[in-house]
Amino acid sequence: MPGRKQFDVDEALDRAMRVFWERGYADASLDTLGTATGLGRGSLYGAFGNKDALFRSCLDRYASRYGTHHEEALTAHAGDPARAVEAFLEATLARIEDPSLPTGCLIAQSAAQSATLEEDSGARVRALLEGQRRRVRAALAPAPAEGHVLDELATYVVAVNQSLAVLSRAGTPVSELRAVARLARTTVADTLARAADGGGRPPA
Question: Based on CB atoms within 10 Å of each CB, which residue in 8, 27, 112, 151 is the most buried?
Fold first, then answer.
């Protein structure tokens, strides 16, 4: 039919997402993206806009696909914040261990390359990180602790989560990453226990 796209948009996005994931925004050239997707520059621009717009579409696709696993992990343990955090980090480790996927995390890699991103793309990366922090904060909400303690814990958990991705990209063994995740879970559990006992804010 006239005007009908002669390619699978979802498949093209998946392939472009993998290029950005493996190479980072700066090193994902239009030629490389075209080779990966099988599309010429004209088709890429026609379907997705410019490189920056395509990158944002890939970020959203990544967040939708893998963010769902994190959301399910958190909600599966409603009322048990420490267990929810453990499951949240386990979702990241499961992705890291998947041999069919690139190492690291597209969002973590993009955050590290923020200086190379256009303003809109940088804002999208920050928004995705903030969304992750809000989901973790919601999972911590049932804990009997002051709001500022839960806020700090949520930021801490997101920081650990992103660190797991960065360390995996640097070749850190999964066994060591799991040790980091266990310590994070213990830190959250101990902090919440102190708060429940009236200990308040964790020591600096």
Answer: 112
Is residue 30, in this structure, part of any structural domain at all? no
Domain with 171 in it: 51-196
Using 50 as the pLDDT threshold, list the residues of the chain that sit under it: 1-4, 200, 202-204
Token pair belonging to 49:
């806009």
Distances (CA, A) of 150 to 21, 78, 136, 143, 157: 31, 15, 9, 8, 10
Domain membership flag for residue 71: yes
Q: What is the CATH number of the domain that holds 61?
A: 1.10.357.10
Residue 156 lies in a domain: yes
The Cα 204–Cα 184 span in angstroms is 16
DSSP state of 2: T
- What pLDDT, on a 0 to 100 scale, did the predictor assign at position 199? 57
- Please name the amino acid found at residue 122: G
Give pLDDT, residue 6. Answer: 61
Give DSSP secondary structure letters for 111-148: HHTGGGS-HHHHHHHHHHHHHHHHHHHHHHTTSSS-HH
